[in-house]
Design goal:
Layout lengths: L1 E6 L5 H13 L7 H6 L7 H9 L3 E6 H7 L9 E6 L2 E6 L1 H6 L3 H9 L3
């Protein structure tokens, strides 16, 4: 089993700079709730990083353009967290569920229910 995290942002340095600026200038209109939970404007959230590095679950992280290149036949609304098991993809937390999470601790609790 592997968890796939798909951010509602495109890859690349220019996009990263734009996303960081958006988080700082107008966080209430920021379109990636998963990004907002797992990262601050410039770095990965330390609680998240600790959880991620200590977890025994395989995790892969994608920007939406990378995900669409890797999985061209899977249509999703981003951000999302998916489970890949036995070559089948299922949704763990969709965009709406991620919007409802208020903290990184809430996200970690929800993920722990999956494994």
């Amino acid at each position: 089993m592997k968890l796939l995290f798909v951010y509602n942002a495109n890859s690349g340095k220019l996009n990263a700079l734009f996303e960081a600026g958006h988080k700082l200038i107008s966080p209430s209109t920021y379109k990636c709730s998963l990004c907002a939970l797992t990262h601050n404007a410039f770095a990965e959230n330390s609680i998240w990083k600790n959880f991620r590095t200590q977890s025994k679950v395989d995790m892969e992280f994608y920007h939406k353009d990378e995900f669409e290149t890797t999985f061209p036949s899977v249509n999703m609304i981003y951000p999302t967290i998916l489970k890949l098991e036995d070559q089948q993809i299922s949704t763990v937390l969709n965009s709406e569920a991620l919007k409802e999470l208020s903290s990184i601790e809430d996200l970690i609790k929800r993920l722990k229910l999956q494994f």
